[in-house]
Write a structure and sequence with these properties.
The complex is a heterodimer. By secondary structure, chain A is an all-alpha fold. Chain A has 2 domains: 1-61; 65-101. Chain A contains 3 helices and no strands. Chain A has helices at 3-32, 38-59, 69-100. Chain A is flat and about 65 Å long. Chain B is mainly α. Chain B has one domain (22-27, 56-197): Four Helix Bundle (Hemerythrin (Met), subunit A) (Up-down Bundle), CATH 1.20.120. In chain B, α1 packs antiparallel against α5 (128-161), α1 packs parallel to α6 (165-197) and α4 (89-119) runs antiparallel to α5. The N and C termini of chain B lie far apart (69 Å). The chains are: A mainly alpha, B mainly alpha.
């Protein structure tokens, strides 16, 4: 096995270990009920966002050097679209829900 | 003559690169579909219409098992990719088979969960919450099924054609798809299951 292939293998294993930890944290918190209230949602959301980034970097090998610029552009474009559509939908629907009460 | 071959190889590489970009665009548009299903689920998740609620239906141990299967299958697909870059077609097929088994295990667990819920009278027609739940999880399950079909096809291609340039490119795109499904699953357990049992 050459040097770069060993490095690729380490990349996958590092990503896997990080993903396991980032999955275990929210599961254990919810399971044991250590935290309650909005703090749990903050931890779940933070762990999820970090784990998505871990998957993108370690499994999909996204980086600023070797990934083609168009792919990065589309990734950012999709992220903006998701933010507008999901954020906008939730904002409108919960506001409506609030007004109907 | 040597020039012609190198030009042809160059052209093939270019066309495969543009396919990889096209596949990436597809994945991003798929992400938009999932995001909208997530938004629909969040809006409807409290509308259980006097039927069973999320806390009564979800079993966190079951979800943890599904999560483990999918995450390990992502790692084994990574090993298939490494074997491919080393040029070991036999080992690539072995890792693909392991990934396939893990993926099928995930699908079996999901089917068991769906069946259990429908038997309890919590089918998709019961409430807005369950309609949104079955649509979101079902769409993901359908993607995993297509991924499993893709793995079968690629096992066949590696065995019959060997690790040629187009086969490598297809296997790489299938890998992107498989890792992408794992990313969607992170969203599913964070948005659907964990808040559901709290």
């Amino acid at each position: 096995m050459t040097h770069s292939e060993e490095r690729v293998q380490t990349t996958y294993l590092t990503g896997f270990a990080l993903a396991v930890v980032l999955t275990a944290i929210p599961f254990v918190l919810v399971w044991t009920g250590w935290l309650t209230g909005p703090a749990v949602y903050v931890v779940i959301a933070a762990a999820a966002v970090i784990q998505v980034l871990v998957h993108l970097v370690f499994f999909l090998h996204i980086n600023l050097k070797s990934t083609p610029g168009e792919n990065l552009f589309f990734l950012c474009f999709a992220a903006v679209l998701l933010f507008i559509m999901v954020g906008g939908s939730l904002w409108i629907m919960f506001d409506l829900h609030h007004r109907m009460m | 003559m040597a020039d012609t071959i190198s030009i042809l190889e160059e052209e093939e590489k270019k066309s495969l690169e543009s396919r990889e970009f096209g596949f990436w665009v597809y994945l991003m548009s798929d992400a938009v579909i999932f995001a909208l299903l997530f938004a629909t689920y969040v809006v409807l998740s409290n509308n259980s219409a006097a039927g069973p609620t999320a806390a009564q239906l979800f079993d966190l141990r079951h979800t943890a098992g599904e999560t483990a299967l999918l995450l390990i299958s992502s790692l084994t697909f990574g090993y298939a990719t490494i074997s491919m870059s080393q040029g070991h077609s036999g080992r690539t097929v072995q890792w693909l088979l392991v990934t396939l088994v893990l993926g099928l295990g995930f699908l079996v667990m999901e089917m068991m969960e769906f069946r259990g819920m429908i038997e309890k009278g919590a089918g998709p027609e019961t409430s807005g919450f369950l309609s949104a739940f079955f649509t979101l999880i079902g769409t993901h399950g359908l993607h995993v099924t297509m991924g499993a079909v893709g793995i079968c096809v690629m096992i066949g291609q590696v065995l019959t054609k060997g690790l040629t340039l187009p086969v490598r490119s297809r296997l790489m795109r299938l890998g992107l798809f498989w890792h992408f499904l794992d990313i969607v699953w992170i969203g599913i357990f964070s948005v659907v299951y964990l808040p559901g049992v709290m």
